[in-house]
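As a warm-up, study this chain.
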Amino acid sequence: MNAATPRYRHLAIGLLVLLILTSRTTAASTEGLIVPGQSLGGLRLGTPVAALYQMPGWGQPDRVHTSGSISYATYNRRAVTVAVRDSVVVLILTTSERYRTEKGVGVGLASSVVAGLYGPGSAGGDGRTTWYDAVGLVVITGGGTIIRLGVYDPKTFVRAILADEQPARDVFLTARPLRTGEPDAAQTDAAGGTGRVTVIAVTLKNASRATKVLNPNFFVLTDRNGQSYKYDRSTFSRKDACRSTVTARPGESRSCTLVFALPAGRLARSVTFDDGGSLDEFFF
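Now compare it with the structure written out below.
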């Protein structure tokens, strides 16, 4: 019996490790998952607000906005808004592309594919919102693109006019570094003599109702130390530079390039577009 004890001990430890790994895998698999009528990012409809405020990864919201009988708790870091009524979660909305349904529906996707996957929906009063009561999915569109997505239980939640406590995402920014290296003669002063320049190509997809201008002043690069940088004037030496004359009409995507001068040893973390009416950030 004593000789077998170590074997059973190793078996028990192995089972414990397996359970831990399984629970972590399950948590990771639900983190970016939207389950219509049930949950978003692992947060389930019907969760008491008191429990929400104690949940790891959620906790206290960045702000709370009340409209009628519904309170909207906004989590900026998750790009998620949680609607609460009678102290329980009744609606969960997101403007982030990280969340997708098992069928692949998410923010940034063409809105035309949703009906083919989930059947016909019912249009809301604002002309942009469609409610899919058969599954418990609400879709907000702009310029033919999904800009906001949410889950609700059609048995307990009657369609409502969604409050704009968090502006719907209406531009989609992507970026890629074209070159990082020593500055040339025209860039030496801006880089401080010892810095490096980073050339970045940006693409802005406009899902709003207004024309967007790719003015270089609307872009900011942030390094991994949290320092922010405006474009370098050598940007205009490039034929494809971002300028106030480069525009994207509703539904269009436009691309251009920017040059940023960074101190030696600094690496780019993200680039942000903010024209005062629309905002999006792309992480490298």
